């Protein structure tokens, strides 16, 4: 896990990358837990994803990345406007954009995670700066 999750807080994951990470996780879990032996035929059978999720009770890689990213975003937003990292996070760079479909911005990913958690109308930067809330 530490090797896979190295610097994951700065990634801007696409759906394709999420699927690839889930596939990698399932591949590793299949290797760890091994196949099962069918009692009737005696053949070895690969474990299905549902079985792997039941055996491995921890959260998935993608969920771990999202939680770490949310924690780091709160940390950066709490630092305030005096921090260099905060200024880079909220700054809108000028200049021409490259051709093609634009990649997801890191901040848009944070807003998407908040929507998944049903916290749509919250301004996450203000929320992180006010520790009491």
Tell me about this structure:
It is built from six helices and two strands. Strands 1-2 form a two-stranded antiparallel sheet. The mean pLDDT is 79. Helices cover 52% and strands 3% of the residues. Strand 1 and strand 2 form a beta hairpin. The two termini are 32 Å apart. By secondary structure, the chain is mainly alpha-helical. It folds into two domains: 46 residues; 62 residues, no CATH class.
| Average pLDDT for all residues | 79
Overall 3D geometry? elongated
| Content of β-strand | under 5%
Helix content: 40-55%
Largest sheet: 2 strands, antiparallel
- How many angstroms separate the termini? 32 Å
Domains, number: 2
Figure out the total of helices. Answer: 6
Helix/strand-derived class? mainly alpha
Unreliably modeled segments = none
Order of helices and strands: HEEHHHHH
Radius of gyration: 20 Å
Biggest sheet: strands side by side, in what order?
Answer: 1-2
Number of beta-strand segments = 2
Descriptors for this entry?
two-stranded antiparallel sheet; about 130 residues; single chain; mainly alpha
């Amino acid at each position: 896990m530490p090797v896979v999750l190295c610097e994951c807080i700065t990634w801007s994951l696409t759906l394709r990358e999420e699927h690839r990470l889930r596939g990698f996780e399932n591949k590793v879990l299949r290797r760890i837990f091994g196949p099962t032996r069918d009692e009737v035929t005696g053949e070895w059978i690969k474990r299905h994803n549902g079985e792997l999720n039941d055996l491995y009770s921890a959260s998935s890689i993608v969920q771990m990345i999202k939680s770490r990213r949310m924690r780091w975003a709160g940390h950066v937003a709490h630092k305030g406007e005096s921090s260099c990292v905060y200024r880079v996070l909220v700054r809108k760079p000028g200049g021409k954009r490259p051709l093609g479909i634009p990649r997801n911005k890191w901040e848009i990913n944070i807003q998407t995670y908040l929507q998944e958690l049903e916290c749509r109308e919250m301004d996450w930067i203000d929320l992180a700066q006010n520790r009491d809330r």
